[in-house]
Amino acid sequence: KVGWYNAILQPAFHLPYPDDTLAFVVLSTPSMFDKALKPFVNKERLKIIRDPVDQCVSHHLSRVKEKFPDQKVDVIFDYEILPSRKPKFLAQTAAHVAGAAYYYQRKDVKLDPWGKKKIYGVCIHPKYGGWFAIRGLLLFPDIQVLFLEQSAPVDCVSTEEKRIELLEQFNFHWQDGRYRDIIEVKERYSEEQKAYFATPPAERFRLLGLTQ
């Protein structure tokens, strides 16, 4: 429910819908690269003019909208920002309240070792660890779900020691990706996919055989 999300955020970040409005958080799993992105690039090669992953996600979510011709469906993508430069929605908070992935933050550590350092939080999925991404939000403004029960996300990094290790790795060593394996995972990115996301965005076109 939109209300679960709005309840834990400052008004500036609230989604402008009634509390009981139905929303879905959309995640991409490690297999997205082979099952969705590569076929999309092969098929739409000449139409790709911006980030290929963003365009691929947009394409698939527009197809989801087509499945509900009698419903109003609003889509917000993870990369969209407001004129104020704030994101249109806080993806990790949305994933947490939807029960999709646990958003580990500084407040989840009792004995904080970081002093005045800025520490960013990170979502961990019980099956994929950090090998996934939050891609968007699907909202159904005309569907009110008064009796929907909230599911808590799985707390899969449950010890103080592991939480500190996770936030340390994510904040200070994120490039090596070790934080993604903070738990034992069922599936992770392929070497090809790792290379793709490790490449600066402007050079990714070349990896996919596209010219800008």
TrEMBL record:
This is Cyanocobalamin reductase / alkylcobalamin dealkylase. Keywords: Cobalamin, Cobalt, Cytoplasm, FAD, Flavoprotein, FMN, NADP, Oxidoreductase. It comes from the Eukaryota. GO terms for molecular function: cobalamin binding; cyanocobalamin reductase (cyanide-eliminating) (NADP+) activity; demethylase activity; FAD binding. It comes from Ciccaba nigrolineata. GO terms for biological process: cobalamin metabolic process. Its EC number is 1.16.1.6, 2.5.1.151. InterPro entries: MMACHC.
